[in-house]
Amino acid sequence: MSFHDNGALASLAPRVSPSPARMSSTIKFGVVGYGYWGPNIVRNLQGIENVEIAAVCDKSSTARRRVHKNHPQIYVMTDASEVMTSPEIDAVAIVTPVWTHFELAKQALENGKHIFVEKPFTSNVRQAEELINLAQRKNLKIMVDHTFVFTGAVRKIKQLLHEGLLGKLYYYDSTRVNLGLFQHDINVVWDLAPHDLSILDYVLEQSPEALVATGQKHLNGLEDIAFITLYFPDSVIAHVNVNWLSPVKVRTTLIGGEKKMLVWNDLEADEKIKVYDKGVEMDSREGLYELLVSYRSGDMWSPHLEQAEALRHELTYFVKCITDGSNPFNDGAAGLRIVRMLEASTKSLRKRGALVYL
Amino acid sequence: MSFHDNGALASLAPRVSPSPARMSSTIKFGVVGYGYWGPNIVRNLQGIENVEIAAVCDKSSTARRRVHKNHPQIYVMTDASEVMTSPEIDAVAIVTPVWTHFELAKQALENGKHIFVEKPFTSNVRQAEELINLAQRKNLKIMVDHTFVFTGAVRKIKQLLHEGLLGKLYYYDSTRVNLGLFQHDINVVWDLAPHDLSILDYVLEQSPEALVATGQKHLNGLEDIAFITLYFPDSVIAHVNVNWLSPVKVRTTLIGGEKKMLVWNDLEADEKIKVYDKGVEMDSREGLYELLVSYRSGDMWSPHLEQAEALRHELTYFVKCITDGSNPFNDGAAGLRIVRMLEASTKSLRKRGALVYL
Amino acid sequence: MSFHDNGALASLAPRVSPSPARMSSTIKFGVVGYGYWGPNIVRNLQGIENVEIAAVCDKSSTARRRVHKNHPQIYVMTDASEVMTSPEIDAVAIVTPVWTHFELAKQALENGKHIFVEKPFTSNVRQAEELINLAQRKNLKIMVDHTFVFTGAVRKIKQLLHEGLLGKLYYYDSTRVNLGLFQHDINVVWDLAPHDLSILDYVLEQSPEALVATGQKHLNGLEDIAFITLYFPDSVIAHVNVNWLSPVKVRTTLIGGEKKMLVWNDLEADEKIKVYDKGVEMDSREGLYELLVSYRSGDMWSPHLEQAEALRHELTYFVKCITDGSNPFNDGAAGLRIVRMLEASTKSLRKRGALVYL
Amino acid sequence: MSFHDNGALASLAPRVSPSPARMSSTIKFGVVGYGYWGPNIVRNLQGIENVEIAAVCDKSSTARRRVHKNHPQIYVMTDASEVMTSPEIDAVAIVTPVWTHFELAKQALENGKHIFVEKPFTSNVRQAEELINLAQRKNLKIMVDHTFVFTGAVRKIKQLLHEGLLGKLYYYDSTRVNLGLFQHDINVVWDLAPHDLSILDYVLEQSPEALVATGQKHLNGLEDIAFITLYFPDSVIAHVNVNWLSPVKVRTTLIGGEKKMLVWNDLEADEKIKVYDKGVEMDSREGLYELLVSYRSGDMWSPHLEQAEALRHELTYFVKCITDGSNPFNDGAAGLRIVRMLEASTKSLRKRGALVYL
Fold this sequence. Notes:
Largest interface: A-B, 59 and 59 residues
CATH architecture of the largest domain in chain A: 3-Layer(aba) Sandwich
Radius of gyration of chain A: 22 Å
CATH superfamily of the largest domain in chain A: NAD(P)-binding Rossmann-like Domain
Structural class of chain A: alpha/beta
Strand content of chain A: 25-35%
Largest sheet of chain A: 9 strands, mixed
Number of strands of chain A: 15
Number of helices of chain A: 9
Oligomer: homotetramer
């Protein structure tokens, strides 16, 4: 299990430059699902060299009409099985509701296609494990669409943590709230928390030991507000606040370390990340009640971030992994780690907040 | 048990106008503790009619010198017992560390003095109950210093909820984080959460059924970051995020209701409270997967708030309660309710987050 | 000369519903210029019923390739004269640099085409007058693209002022600064100020009596920072701060009135407009030095704004005007009023800030 | 004429350490005026070593009662002449309306007292010159209370400009607006602009060549909104926007340079100053219309600022200048430079905005 991207991204140019021998080999994609996120997948795939979109498929006639209007040249299908069995197609992007991921992914893998699966990977751990095994046997690639870890902000955070700028890590506290969009098949944890959990998985390079999730249902029988505490090794604590019923949109993460502290506000146009030279020092020579606490407050620094579209990065990377046979760091195993946390959250939520070991 | 203030505050003028018969009776205060908060108590008491500060007491000679410099005319004492036993003194303000509250309060009550006690009331439920019983037997008043419920913002929130402006309540989500000030005897929950818990107690007019608290210690053996989920009746959920290790100061509360939603940002100079005409409506005629969700988004409104100093309000109200024999709504019972939640939080924290019934 | 829109917009549906007799008549557009703004014109025209884009024209081969890539079905031309003389074309959108507007517009009108001209209308007053006369003789419509007056924010401001909510108007103070985009043929006043001047013209329904403009050139021989004060009747004063060299983007307008005051921050996602119940009252009974000044501070209110794209609104309105023969309020005369202010600004700037009467 | 502070402040310790010979000599102050700003002068003088407040004087009995309540030990006077002629007093702080400054200052100097005068120094240039001459003849010190140049923010800005961090300076653009406080004897320019003008004088170390001022009167016959453009050598332009009728308080200054750009928001609790690594570069090899413009956007940096109270710094510095005979950089000449700009602004305002050379 590798949490590292091994510098793979560092060398990512916007367009892949494969070796001459491979120049001829175009990757042909089928895209299943053209709802909220599918159009972004299609638009970005179109801009990548050596990629061809063989077909886009959606059960809804409205969605199919939309594909045709936006991309008159793309072939449109109704039945996903057609995509899965087409000998023309090398890789399938599965951009459908979570509960359909397993069956679609399984069919794709069985038919020898690499898969790019929308987050969260599957509805449960068992499904994820089965898909990973299947892909391994078939020598196929799985990439789970954890788009956020391809943003300039998250990559900068990982870099700063990796370089030790913040010192020993204390906590990671994320608030991700807004009004809607209500999902019909999954609660707010399965909808919004995969972003935070995949970022945590990526930047901390560790798995949590245990978690506690609390929340409440108000409208459609699914939790619309929830809070997850994750206990990591070495006293690192993470907290995720997700809410579909907030009047204001908030996307703020505080990261506290021994040496420095960081605030990531993803809604800022510029200055998304601010690094504070602030800290607390304890001097316990005098015993507990005489403990000397000193506070350090210095400059603030906001690093310039790469502006490129994260999804373009990610899909280019997927094509590169297929082409050169390397394994993506956001592979099925990464998808499984997130699903395991989500499953544990559900278990904890059912008990209104119990400690669940992972 | 009454959560209501019964309009007592509505009629609060900055200065009490007691009946002629009582005009002559000045309330003589002793103030024990002149550290961080004590100077505010002294300054505000001085501005209230019919109040006289008979003595200020502190064990620290530095603190005593500070009293003398700021208020050369005030009598300064070293030993709290002197205050407690002085026949000159009618009421004592106890503004010392939490672990000293019980002994000081007990001595004051036994000597026939009304008490104004810094929050949190006591170190545990048993102490609070003993003090309440003692005060009742002695026919003395206890007021616990839940200052925030006397601010213009909290009083406006209570009013809006009471009037039903937000409709059925969904959640209350507070973030109260900053750098320091580390306490030596209590963790961040006992230090910062009493503000949120006393506000919840005041505006919801209900007690939680259960709670879950998670957190972590990084520096001095006491939790410096913690998260509390409180389950109230009727699916109302509250969450409190407290943190001594944040690089930025945040004092933001989201309150979601069926009809409207409210954001209270206490750091805004103006526009502390914003009421959003936003909401979600479900139409389930078509069954779960066809559930129609509609979002409503209208005007935003920020009510003008009263600017007066909360502590002045609170102390004036205390003097009024002593003078006319009425019971303050932030009495010992209110203090006990907060201590009960804090004690439950400690219990839950020790198990790294277990559901604790109240 | 009419500053009013006479409710024309109020009845604007996203799609025009002309009388049955006209149903068959499609308006055929030629678009000249496919640089920064042209693509938005093309995209929006495509969504309007009874509109057909007959051709898009640009001198640059890069631009022409871009048209073809985005809209493979649209006919692309190199020479603007071809558009102007085509018998197929009813109306021309001129989306080219300012110094080319006059010649292109003249040719279009002479060939019997209605014109939609990018702001500012022309390079000087004389040109604008000539085009207005020509259009009148030919019975053709001119619309000048003052897009901002079709935004939800500006229409709401006009409505609030019109209803008298702010009381007697005192001032209008706009800041419109950012980094770049430097223009090669016009200075920052001709680039950015047309937005503010056309908004002023629209919401105040008055022309200024005189203006003073100051500024400075630092890089390419054209002013990159400038300040314009406009004196309107009845002591109304307006100020416009435009700057291409600001590290931060600001789009904020303060509008002060006797009864209320308004802040419009166009960079806010929500709450673009805030109306403050604030004011100053003078009581001069006692003579100048005893003047009693009282300040009023009440609630703040942020009205919900229409979210539709302004340019869609504007182009739909242009088609409606062509179809039913009505005159747009943002006609050649409106364009001329803005050019007159710009010309006066240039005159004032050359003298480093002299009062120029209009 | 020296704009430099010659490092005098760098060595300022909170408390002066005079040479042994002078240790015994306490500076005795009289304070004339105890309105809005006087209490701050008194409070800060009290904290400075070797300073004694001999008397505070105010014509208003309400003000005198306030002195007595806050400082029972300080001697209170009614008649300013008493202060001016008292042999006990070494230095006088004149904290009264502008129109009274000249007479009071003259009387103080004639009686051999050093003077600390509230900004603006005098009502006109002639008065300022007369006072400077008088002080020179009498070998007395004049300090004009330009408090802002003693703040951590302004001192940091001066340092950064001095070090050349921003490169060649382009512009300085300040907005200083709020609701009230209306002055009865001076307009908004004389009330608010002295802050900006004294900061400009201090950080640019240059005097403007000319200025243009525009504005409008709405309420009490004095301008309540005004805009000043100042032309400095080398194409540096400054702009000051002052307004008593704004619903929101703004204290923001943009400073643009060739290499970097700076934003100073004085209302931010932290991060008052942000330095942006942004810029524009022109490459004119290709001729005007082919001018290549490139934009640079890098990190942002917010330096930590000194938190000490500016007025304490300033008064300590005044005492030091009296004690060691050195000349303060904010002396009568500095005060005169500001008054000269104010006088020119008035002249320009009367013509509704004319270029006035200085």
